[in-house]
Amino acid sequence: MFSNSDHDFMTENMKISVETLEEKLNEPFFSEFKDIAVDAISKYIDAIKNYEASGVPRDLFSGRDNEAEETIRKHYCEISDGIDRIEIIEVMDALRHSFSCYAYNGLHQLYTRQENECWHPKICLTDVLEPNDIEALPQTITLYRGCDASEFECNSFGQAWTTSLEMAENFAYRTYRSQPWFDVTNRAVLEVSYCKDDVLFSDQSIEYEVVVDVQKLTGVRRRT
Fold it and tell me: Both 86 and 177 in a single domain?
């Protein structure tokens, strides 16, 4: 679906799960717009590469879009003007948001500004993301995750956990109540003990998030 260079950029630089992205673009409802989305992604990547190659440092405090962000915004506006189906716009806008975040401040912005209530490209961290506050964590951490119960049943867990039980309960039972897919009977709070040395990212403000290497998770428990 994607060129080798675009595939590699998303996988290696943006840590996007290209497999799940392709699954989304291959859904029947999106078939008419798949080529448009693939072309847009290629243009977004070219804009980012050209900006990074220019050597112009990212200015995070100017309040103005950089060249790559502006290119992404303009292209999105051009293609969205001709689309009148909200479900298509939602996917296109999620792509715009993700690539704009990366254009603004790289992987840190892309990961920390993910849109969690709607679909967005899945980000899978494989290395430590900086800046972080990992050093402030204890050596052994008790982590919680509010999620679909199928994660526990299938032993297939997401990367984002929290040191706050209250926050995990919010994600499990309250945050997504307005979503059409939400079913409280299928929600769960998980708990695990985890080693600080294996943490990939931590931000102990607001959501008290800790990102884990899921291969290092052992003894995950479902709270009752």
Answer: no
State whether 78 and 177 are in the same domain: no
Reported as a pLDDT band with limits 50, 70 and 90, residue 224 is confident
pTM (predicted TM-score): 0.91
CB neighbours of residue 37 within 10 Å: 19
Cβ atoms within 10 Å of 200's Cβ, excluding its own = 19
Same structural domain for residues 96 and 18?
yes
Nearest alpha-carbon partner for 94 in 109, 73, 115: 115
Q: Dig out the tokens for 166 from the structure.
A: 């209250």
Burial of 45 (0-12, 13-18, 19+ CB in 10 A): buried
Is residue 27 assigned to a domain?
A: yes
Strand-pair category, 187-195 with 140-148: antiparallel
Domain housing 154: 134-222
213, 195 in Cβ contact below 8 A? no
